[in-house]
Design goal:
The structure is a homodimer. The first copy, chain A, contains 4 helices and 7 strands; from the N terminus they run αβαββαβαβββ. The first copy, chain A, has helices at about 5-25, 40-50, 80-90, 105-120, and strands spanning about 30-35, 55-60, 75, 95-100, 125-135, 140-145, 155-160. In chain A, helix 1 packs parallel to helix 2. The longest helix of chain A has 22 residues, at about 5-25. The radius of gyration of chain A is 15 Å and the shape is globular. In chain A, about 35% of the residues are buried.
């Protein structure tokens, strides 16, 4: 499998997971949190699949395509370790879906981030909310879900907030 | 169609075109010229589809993934306007396949580049060689081919060197 094949497979799996999750939360109220906006392609996909739903996008800096980012009140820039607790303090555990695409090439940094993010997510999402993460998480209120679609191993980790 | 959908569609079309072209040149000797290496994903795909075939990759600078670039003699860094004529002078019109992914966000610069690239390609590829280009080209020895697969309009232009 070439790196082009692998890239297409990864993006297609990402789309399948997003499509599943957006359908699964249809009856669950609350905003979506896009943690790691990046280029904005997944934000754009979430926006298309969830018309009318508030989507907050978090990132360290704004590197998004001009057509793929939310208007100012929904674009939250800064370190996740600051912006996410601030959001929880203001809004409470309201999110219906949290999509976390936060990993970098630094495995040790990813593991540290996943540890504190795991503890933070239950303060952001309501019971029944779905968490999609590119990093393996661990917390007593994060129940691992079986991927509903064929995705490359360790590409996505799916949880429900209990 | 979200930007994620559009991106997947574009990459899938790219792969389909590469798969078609690599099969189409099976009986035509000569190296492949990858003009615009970038990340190296398409180089990796070409290498996988054409084992044993020399592939020269050209780019202004080396931004490729470590696993997706050719060894030194096949990696040619510098301005295309210098490296491609130099290749033609050394090797002659030997290539069987030329994949040109050279466009930037600057439409005027792309048009200028496509103009002189059009004139240069017949000095690089043998008669019957296939040219895949992300830019529309024009030269009496470049015969436009109908795309053999469903690709987004204006994403790829296919030519045969007459």
């Amino acid at each position: 499998m070439s790196r082009l094949d692998s890239f297409i497979r990864r993006l297609t799996a990402q789309r399948s997971v997003l499509d599943w999750a957006t359908a699964a939360i249809a009856a669950l109220p609350g905003p979506v949190l896009e943690v790691g906006l990046g280029n904005g392609r997944t934000f754009d996909h979430l926006r298309e699949k969830l018309p009318g739903r508030d989507i907050y996008a978090f990132d360290r800096a704004d590197n998004a395509h001009p057509l793929s980012k939310p208007p100012a009140p929904f674009l939250v820039l800064g370190e996740f370790s600051v912006t996410l607790p601030a959001f929880a303090a203001t809004h409470g555990a309201v999110a219906a879906l949290l999509h976390c695409d936060t990993g970098s090439g630094d495995a040790a940094a990813n593991a540290r981030q996943a540890a504190w993010l795991s503890g933070l997510l239950p303060s952001l999402g309501r019971p029944g909310a779905i968490v999609l993460s590119d990093q393996r998480l661990g917390h007593e209120r994060l129940q691992l879900l079986q991927a509903p679609v064929d995705i490359p191993p360790d590409r996505y980790f799916l949880y429900s907030i209990t």
